[in-house]
């Protein structure tokens, strides 16, 4: 047996005359205190630190307390904003605080056009809009979100500019309703993906109050209704584009300077050719937007760092439209010889691509070794790539007085013009560099691998002074082929779209890339081509708008399929693999053309919707914008961690031009845009 355990104390129980009990608990407390005093100072500090941590974690893990803290902080911010910025709002305009505490508007099929009120732009008084009021667009039908908004005052108002932008660079977090139809005061979620908060600064305007909604709604009987006047605040849309560019440029400058592409989520860069694609693609955009400081920094890099003497394979098409086109465009806008010298350097290094048996160029060129080759897996080149380099090479010949550049690209167009295998002007997607013949015949699309062939037919004809009849003939025949074989309408809403043809079978599939077509058709009609081209452009522009509007994020997917069945279902169907958005420019490009030629303000409003959606779902706090994986999920769009160079080179440039009232800013009677939105002059017509 074990001996009884030893006890270091004696417990006594004493009773007094009043039956009160006493024990030695006090002595035990004194014993604990002595042991505590025996600990070293470091040990006591560690114990106290751990106890403090446990207390803090316990408080934070209790949801009721944290919600009260957060709610109180948010409430104070809103009160501060309300007191500071909108205390002097005129009658009839409610503050954002009032709207935030009210009920949200139910979603409607066609939202009314309402004037916007920018809270931070109203500091004590209402700013009078410059020129006629342009109403802010209906919000995209993103039925389950509501965005609080903090913005700074606009700082770029051009005389007579009726364009409205969202101004300011304050950063606020985007909140999304948990369920459709919930009230504003219910719990909201912060949109976050992989540690990146997507901000909603410059986001959608706050929801209108009930009185504002009634004022904007069309009255049942105008004779019985007196319209109420609601003061409006001009919103500077041009400044919003500049703000977006600066935010994107900040990310590129901080994390990817001198490299091809920014990865904004990981705050790193991606390299394709090692030629600073984003920087070169952005040069003329910065010049057009008047961003002199940013342009000067980029020019300094081009002068001191940009070299093409490197052992690297580049894609002929991409390097031509982005690098050669960007340098030529910047030369024309600035008159700076540096850019023309760099253009001649890269142009001459791309020439080995044309040394093929058929004179159809290879797709890849080593600009250091002077060699060229097709892709490893085929001897074909895509038709769009070999027929969408002509504008740039022709202009290089005109500037340098060296005909070799124009000769090689004109030869390609002559060969394609005579080739068999077309279908009423429609062309297959591939051409063999050895035989010079079409391959994969029977498949016709205006999407990837064929799109810019049709675009460059028209633009070469315009560039050359409308003298090259073969180009015009091919373009007109192609448009007729599109109308005959590829144009269809959806069953539910009769949306006109352009599908694809595969061995006589029609596929109601349309790439976002095809949204270049409305603008191209409008450009042709502006230059004297048949009026029904413009009619088709208007119809297709509506369809491209719906590709954005019918998505929960207000952003178009890469590919859509259309419902041709007569039913009450949706017009647009998106497969899971096609739900990504790459910040593409084609729709805003066409909106720019359509507004320039029609002056219909709805095209500006549609472009404004798109910019807001980019800010809401693709903007990354540290700088830059990211492509996303799922345009149908506003809570978790899923970043792809890549900002394509064309977002700065094309998308933001076209948005700026869309919102500008200066019709002479890159007049379409003086300039033609290449397929990367770089401007080249229209040549003077030769004397007759």
UniProtKB/TrEMBL annotation:
Write out the function statement from the record.
Answer: Involved in glycoprotein quality control targeting of misfolded glycoproteins for degradation. It primarily trims a single alpha-1,2-linked mannose residue from Man(9)GlcNAc(2) to produce Man(8)GlcNAc(2), but at high enzyme concentrations, as found in the ER quality control compartment (ERQC), it further trims the carbohydrates to Man(5-6)GlcNAc(2).
Start-end of Basic and acidic residues biased regions: 156-178
Q: What is this protein called?
A: alpha-1,2-Mannosidase
Which residues does UniProt mark as catalytic? 318, 451, 558, 586
Its EC number is: 3.2.1.-
Q: Which cysteines are joined by disulfide bonds?
A: 515-544
A GO CC annotation recorded here is: endoplasmic reticulum membrane
- Which cofactors are reported in the record for this sequence? Ca(2+)
Q: Name one GO molecular function term.
A: mannosyl-oligosaccharide 1,2-alpha-mannosidase activity
User: In which residues is Ca(2+) bound?
Assistant: 675
Q: What's the protein's topology in the membrane?
A: Single-pass type II membrane protein
Catalysed reactions, as listed in the record: N(4)-(alpha-D-Man-(1->2)-alpha-D-Man-(1->2)-alpha-D-Man-(1->3)-[alpha-D-Man-(1->2)-alpha-D-Man-(1->3)-[alpha-D-Man-(1->2)-alpha-D-Man-(1->6)]-alpha-D-Man-(1->6)]-beta-D-Man-(1->4)-beta-D-GlcNAc-(1->4)-beta-D-GlcNAc)-L-asparaginyl-[protein] (N-glucan mannose isomer 9A1,2,3B1,2,3) + 4 H2O = N(4)-(alpha-D-Man-(1->3)-[alpha-D-Man-(1->3)-[alpha-D-Man-(1->6)]-alpha-D-Man-(1->6)]-beta-D-Man-(1->4)-beta-D-GlcNAc-(1->4)-beta-D-GlcNAc)-L-asparaginyl-[protein] (N-glucan mannose isomer 5A1,2) + 4 beta-D-mannose; N(4)-(alpha-D-Man-(1->2)-alpha-D-Man-(1->2)-alpha-D-Man-(1->3)-[alpha-D-Man-(1->3)-[alpha-D-Man-(1->2)-alpha-D-Man-(1->6)]-alpha-D-Man-(1->6)]-beta-D-Man-(1->4)-beta-D-GlcNAc-(1->4)-beta-D-GlcNAc)-L-asparaginyl-[protein] (N-glucan mannose isomer 8A1,2,3B1,3) + 3 H2O = N(4)-(alpha-D-Man-(1->3)-[alpha-D-Man-(1->3)-[alpha-D-Man-(1->6)]-alpha-D-Man-(1->6)]-beta-D-Man-(1->4)-beta-D-GlcNAc-(1->4)-beta-D-GlcNAc)-L-asparaginyl-[protein] (N-glucan mannose isomer 5A1,2) + 3 beta-D-mannose
Region: Disordered, residue numbers: 127-227
Give the pathway listed in the UniProt entry for this protein: Protein modification; protein glycosylation
Per UniProt, the enzyme's principal EC class comes to: hydrolase
Q: To which protein family does this belong?
A: Belongs to the glycosyl hydrolase 47 family.
- A Gene Ontology biological process term: carbohydrate metabolic process
InterPro entries linked: 6hp_glycosidase-like_sf, Glyco_hydro_47, Glycosyl_Hydrolase_47, Seven-hairpin_glycosidases
Which residue windows does the record flag with biased composition (Low complexity)? 216-227
Its transmembrane ranges are 45-65
Subcellular location as annotated: Endoplasmic reticulum membrane
State the UniProt keywords alphabetically.
Calcium, Disulfide bond, Endoplasmic reticulum, Glycosidase, Hydrolase, Membrane, Metal-binding, Signal-anchor, Transmembrane, Transmembrane helix
């Amino acid at each position: 047996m074990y001996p009884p355990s030893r006890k270091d104390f004696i417990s006594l129980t004493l009773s007094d005359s009043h039956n009160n009990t006493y024990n030695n608990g006090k002595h035990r407390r004194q014993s604990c205190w002595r042991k505590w005093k025996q600990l070293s100072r470091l040990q006591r500090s560690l114990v106290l630190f751990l106890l403090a941590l446990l207390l803090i974690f316990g408080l934070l893990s209790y949801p009721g307390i944290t919600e009260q803290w957060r709610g109180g902080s948010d409430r104070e911010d809103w009160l501060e904003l309300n007191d500071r910025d909108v205390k002097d709002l005129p009658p009839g305009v409610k503050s954002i605080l009032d709207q935030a505490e009210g009920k949200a508007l139910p979603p409607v099929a066609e939202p009314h056009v309402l004037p916007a009120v920018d809270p931070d732009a109203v500091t004590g008084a209402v700013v009078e809009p410059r020129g006629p009021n342009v109403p802010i667009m209906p919000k995209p039908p993103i039925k389950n979100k509501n965005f609080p908004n903090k913005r700074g005052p606009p700082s770029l108002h051009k005389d007579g500019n009726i364009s409205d932008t969202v101004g300011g660079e304050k950063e606020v977090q985007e909140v999304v309703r948990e369920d459709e139809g919930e009230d504003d005061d219910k719990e909201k979620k912060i949109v976050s993906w992989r540690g990146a908060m997507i901000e909603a600064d410059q986001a959608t305007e706050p929801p209108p109050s009930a009185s504002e909604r009634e004022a904007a709604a069309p009255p049942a009987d105008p004779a019985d209704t007196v319209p109420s006047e609601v003061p409006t605040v001009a919103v500077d849309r041009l400044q919003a584009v500049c703000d977006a560019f600066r935010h994107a440029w900040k990310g590129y400058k901080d994390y990817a300077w001198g490299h091809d592409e920014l990865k904004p989520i990981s705050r790193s860069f991606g390299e394709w050719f090692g030629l600073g694609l984003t920087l070169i693609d952005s040069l003329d955009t910065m010049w057009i937007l008047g961003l002199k400081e940013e342009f000067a920094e980029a020019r300094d890099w081009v002068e001191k760092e940009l070299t093409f003497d490197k052992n690297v394979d580049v894609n002929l098409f991409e390097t031509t439209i982005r690098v050669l086109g960007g340098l030529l465009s910047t030369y024309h806008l600035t008159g700076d010889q540096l850019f023309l010298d760099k253009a001649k350097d890269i142009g001459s290094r791309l020439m080995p691509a044309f040394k093929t048996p058929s004179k159809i160029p290879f797709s890849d060129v080593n600009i250091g070794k002077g060699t060229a080759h097709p892709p490893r897996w085929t001897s074909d080149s895509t038709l769009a790539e070999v027929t969408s380099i002509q504008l740039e090479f022709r202009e290089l010949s005109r500037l340098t007085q060296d005909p070799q550049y124009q000769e090689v690209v004109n030869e390609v167009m002559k060969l394609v013009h005579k080739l068999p295998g077309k279908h009423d002007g429609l062309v297959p997607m591939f051409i063999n560099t050895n035989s010079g013949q079409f391959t994969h015949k029977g498949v016709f699309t205006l999407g990837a691998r064929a799109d810019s062939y049709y675009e460059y037919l028209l633009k070469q004809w315009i560039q050359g002074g409308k003298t090259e009849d073969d180009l015009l003939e091919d373009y007109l025949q192609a448009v007729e082929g599109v109308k005959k074989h590829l144009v269809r309408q959806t069953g539910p809403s009769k949306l006109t779209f352009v599908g694809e043809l595969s061995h006589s079978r029609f596929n109601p599939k349309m790439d976002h890339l095809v949204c270049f077509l409305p603008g191209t058709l409008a450009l042709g009609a502006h230059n004297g081509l048949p009026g029904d081209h413009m009619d088709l452009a208007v119809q297709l522009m509506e369809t491209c708008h719906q590709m954005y509007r019918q998505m929960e994020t207000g952003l178009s997917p890469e590919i859509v399929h259309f419902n041709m069945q007569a039913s009450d279902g949706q017009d647009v169907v998106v497969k899971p693999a096609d739900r990504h958005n790459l910040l593409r420019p084609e729709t805003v490009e066409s909106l720019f053309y359509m507004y320039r030629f029609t002056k219909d303000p709805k095209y500006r409003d549609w472009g404004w919707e798109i910019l807001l959606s980019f800010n809401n779902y693709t903007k990354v706090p540290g700088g830059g914008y990211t492509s996303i994986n799922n345009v149908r999920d506003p809570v978790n769009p899923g970043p792809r961690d890549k900002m394509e160079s064309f977002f700065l080179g094309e998308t933001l440039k076209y948005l700026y031009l869309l919102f500008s009232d200066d019709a002479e800013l890159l007049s379409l009677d003086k300039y033609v845009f290449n397929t990367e939105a770089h401007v080249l002059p229209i040549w003077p017509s030769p004397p007759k």
